[in-house]
Amino acid sequence: FIVLTKGKTPIISSSIQKVTKSEYSHASISFDHSLKELYSYNFRKENLGFVMEKLETIKDVPISVWCFFAESEVVENMKKKVYDFKTHDTHYDFRMLPRFIRKKDIKPDDNEYNQVCSTFVDTVLKAGNINLVRDINMPSPADIYDGIKTRANTIFRVYDGPAGQYNGSKVKKKIDYLLNKDTTEAVNEACKDVKTARKFVREVEKLAKRYDANYFIVTDGASGIHNNGN
C-alpha cells in the first residue's frame, strides 16, 4: 500500500505543496490493509528519520491510499529493505527541501539512510524492481503520485478521505474484488517500456536461431514470430 498525505504542517508541508504544485506533501508505505504498520520518514523532534506511523495521530488529515499486487518474492524484497532501515541509524535529510525548491535533482550525499519520506518510499519500491519515478534521483510525493497515475491496471485507489475514517475491513473487500477482476495485473507484470520489450524479443530471436526453434512471442511493447512449417 502506498499512502499519500495532504499535510497541514505550516512550513514543510506547505513548502512542498507549493514547490511541487501538488496537494500531496508526504508519502508512506505499508504491507497490511489495516495500515497498522505504516513506514516512512518524519521530522518530529522525538524521531528525526525512519518511523512507524499511526493514522490515529493524524485523524483529520486527508490521505489517499493506493494498493498494488506483486509476487511474494517482490514483496519480501521490499520488506527486507524496510527491515534494513529499521535496524540502522537513520536521519531526516533537511537538505533535500532546498534542493526541491531549486529543482536540483541530486541527493546531498550517498548515505542511503539519510532520506525524506518520498525518497524512502521510492527506495523501498525499487528494492522490488518497481520504478514509478523514471530517472528522477530525488522524487517528491508529487512524482510518486504522477507515477501511480500511469499504472491504471496495476495500482488502484482504495481510499480517499480523513485518516481517522480509514476502515481496513472495507478496504479488504475492495482488495478481494480487485484480485478477482480479469483486468487486474501484478505491478511487475507489465512491460517497463518499449525499449525493454524490443530487447527481450531480440534475445528470444537469437536463442531461437541458435537452436532452430519456433517461437511466437507477444508483449505489451513488441512481438516476434518464427515458424519453419509447424
Please give a structural write-up:
By secondary structure, the protein is an alpha+beta fold. Helices cover 35% and strands 22% of the residues. It has seven helices and ten strands. The chain has helices at residues 12-20, 72-86, 96-102, 117-127, 141-149, 168-179, 194-211; strands at 2-5, 26-30, 38-44, 47-53, 62-68, 91-92, 114-115, 155-162, 215-218, 223-226. The strands form three sheets. It has a six-stranded antiparallel sheet, sandwiched between helices. A hairpin with a 4-residue loop joins strand 9 and strand 10 (223-226). It starts with a strand and ends with a strand. The model has no long low-confidence stretch (mean pLDDT 88).
Radius of gyration: 20 Å
What strand line-up does the widest sheet have?
Answer: 4-3-2-1-5-8
Form type: globular
Count of DSSP H/I helices: 7
Distance between the termini: 46 Å
Weakly predicted, low-confidence segments: none
Helix content: 25-40%
Q: What string gives the helices and strands in order?
A: EHEEEEHEHEHHEHHEE
Strand content: 15-25%
Mean pLDDT: 88
- Largest sheet data: 6 strands, antiparallel
Find the count of extended strands (DSSP E, 2+ residues). Answer: 10
By secondary-structure content and strand pairing, the structural class works out as alpha+beta
